[in-house]
What we know:
By secondary structure, this protein is an alpha/beta fold. Helices cover about 35% and strands about 20% of the residues.
Amino acid sequence: MAAIAAGAGAIELDIQGSADGILYVHHDFSPFPADPETALTRSFSVLTSGEISAVRLAGDISIPTLDEVIEAVDGRASIFVEVKVQGIEEATARCLKRHMGRLDQFAVHAFDHRIVRRIAGLFPSLRTGVLQVSYLVDSCAAMRLAGATDLWQHVDFIDASLVSSIHSCGGRVIAWTANSSEQWEHLHSLGVDGICTDSVDRYVQFIASGVT
């Protein structure tokens, strides 16, 4: 909750799914380090919720479920959920529907645009977005095919033409991941709709300095 305490209006998190359909907030595909000899590890998808709940991170912290994080945020910030793997689309839709009173604070996005299209079909009123780390000839078409309204675009591939194009088709541009004041100033000048950063405290100070 450090980002919220620092003044973030939204948080972005990644989810994985257990073998028995529980969603966990974790970036990596496994809660365990890779075996030093084989470089293999067990993914969330082959572990039960009981096994995952027994895992302890640094500081004796358990891996939270998406439901737990939503309750902990308690409406203090919007939540952008990146779905990391296929096969958990229905579980994602069910989870967010359990918190319908906060629907306007949720959005889902993914690098795999098929995931976005499935979730958009399961939950049409949910805001969805596609992640890109390239400059497509027609990003509006990619969004339309996925049923998305947000474009999560890597900061290195954003220019005025892209922002204008996405706005013309009714979408929003969210830049990731921008961590310098030079990047923030440039992105604001382009008119992006959101900035994802690892440096929330400095970005809040940047905004407070009077940037428009």
